[in-house]
Amino acid sequence: MNASDPLAVIAQFPGVPEAVDEARQAVDKLYRHRVLRRASPAVSTESSLRGARASAAIEGVDVPLDALRRDEIHDPLVQGALRVSAEIGRLGSTWRNAPRQVLARLHSVAAVGLVPDAALGRPRSGDETVLGRPETEGEAAGPPNLGAAPSAKEAAARMEGLFGLLEQPTKAPALVLAAVVHAELAVLRPFGVADGVVARAAERLTLVEYGLDPKSLVAVEVGHLELPYADGLRAYLSGTPEGVARWVQQCASAVTLGVREATAICEAMQRG
């Protein structure tokens, strides 16, 4: 792999250019919707709400959208996903230059009530267990099963590599960078709790700040909920070109499905 621009190499894996182009075209079509001339902030707000609900559902806490609107859900993971969605708009300008600071902030709002306050925003540093949610009857056990997390030392080393990718120029499309950011955070589990929520928020933030979806309209988390999420991440974990390509293609499909969700929001607003 080209050490100077590894993302550009990934962008040329078989099937990736076509998938990325299809997602790009879908986003471009969404941005031409007439409702967005006057209501793009409202569409973004609704997309963020639906994205937060979907992100929590991927972690095993699936709640009705209407209950979220009525503020009836007090589950800490759901509340964390909502806080993360609200925080994205305030962190964009910092993401390119200080990604460590942004991830710490995302975790500090995502994991309230799930870890002691002293652990908020702090990467795991020892042999602490990477936690899921407690198993309860009728509820998934939490984050998708990706096997044992890497050691804190290995996770920290790979996170440094991820920060390097964010800081260096690349010819790769924003979607490829967003897919790698998402996967690395999801599989490394640098914080040990709520990493999936942080990973999906970081993907959305990357799509916004690197130009694919500057108005944060695409409910990409909804797309991930509809796709075989854990299977895609396990493919990425294989480290093979085929596995990594499959994950990037899955992220492109998630964007396309997220566009469909945003378009539905636009159509509902147009009907009044």
From TrEMBL:
Residues in coiled coil: none
Domain Fido: 98-250
Region of interest (Disordered), ranges: 123-151
Gene3D superfamilies noted in UniProt: Fido-like domain
Source domain of life: Bacteria
Name of the protein described by the UniProt record: Oxidoreductase
Species of provenance: Nonomuraea purpurea
